[in-house]
Design goal:
The longest helix has 15 residues, at 244-258. A six-stranded mixed β-sheet has the order 1-3-2-6-4-5, covered by helices on one side. The protein has a two-stranded antiparallel ribbon with strand order 7-8. Helix 6 crosses helix 9 (244-258). It is built from nine helices and eight strands. Strand 4 and strand 5 form a beta hairpin. The termini are far apart. Helices cover 29% and strands 15% of the residues.
């Protein structure tokens, strides 16, 4: 019989408890993952109780309230609070999403908040996205065209051509999709992941781009693209309602058509 032993520091412990001094009718409880790289202690889960009459309705509002009123050491990313920047992506109630658009009232019971799964953690709820951004950069996410050097006019598209990039240009690089993909968990060093591939498709499908063939040749790889097994977790996780799985399928079809 094979026995597997995990490192001692991999066990997540029960952490601090911050309870309200008195009971209130609009009380909500949150359990938040905590990790301090400067400490030799194991990761822990802290328990917080907040009065929703003193806090906004979103999970991000609760995190900001906790940081400003209860524990200033709590660390997380956030920016505009309007669901268009992707900074506050995390795992809430078992689902990767944006804290700024996740209603606390949509979660039954204790609100459990963890960082994006299967990523190195810098601190608390902040994942290290260095590798994800390197993969994003590898697909050359910009327009490649010689037209601007030959003409001072803008490059026009028909309404039909413009419609081709709908469902791809809206990606905000929150990486909720990649962090939900088992193939990315297992082969994150080689497989580009749904987020980068969706961005690749955005330029492959752009009628103004002149490098579609070279882009497809770059992706024609058993790991970069074909580690996708159409599990569909990426599409289910996207907080913007996009369909990375469909974009990956279209890239595969495009490669098949040029072979």
């Amino acid at each position: 019989m094979v026995a597997f032993n995990l490192p001692k520091n991999s066990k997540v412990l029960k952490g601090n408890r911050f309870k309200l001094s008195r009971d209130v009718p609009n009380k909500r409880a949150l359990e938040i993952y905590r990790y301090d790289p400067d400490s030799s202690n194991n990761p822990r889960v802290d328990y917080f109780e907040i009065n929703m009459h003193e806090c906004g309705p979103m999970v991000l509002d609760a995190l900001i309230y906790i940081k400003s009123q209860i524990d200033s050491s709590l660390t997380f990313r956030r920016s505009c609070r309007e669901g268009v920047c992707g900074s506050c992506s995390m795992n809430i109630d078992g689902t990767n999403t944006l804290a700024c658009i996740k209603h606390i009232k949509d979660v039954k019971g204790v609100v459990k908040i963890y960082p994006l799964p299967h990523m190195k953690i810098i601190k608390d709820l902040v994942p290290d996205l260095s590798d994800a951004y390197k993969q994003y950069a590898s697909v050359k996410p910009w327009l490649q065209s010689t037209m601007p050097s030959k003409s001072e006019k803008e490059q026009l598209q028909s309404p039909e051509e413009r419609k081709e990039i709908d469902g791809a240009y809206e990606c905000i690089l929150c990486f909720c999709c990649s962090a939900s993909c088992p193939s990315y968990w297992w082969n994150g060093d080689k497989y580009l992941g749904p987020a980068a591939l969706l961005q690749a498709y955005r330029w492959i499908s752009d009628s103004r781009d002149e490098s579609s063939k070279s882009r497809l040749e770059f992706l024609k790889d058993s790991f970069k693209l074909y580690r996708c097994h159409t599990i569909m977790n990426c599409t289910n996780a996207c907080p913007k309602g996009l369909n990375p799985a469909q974009a990956i399928s279209r890239i595969k079809s495009s490669i098949a058509n040029i072979e």
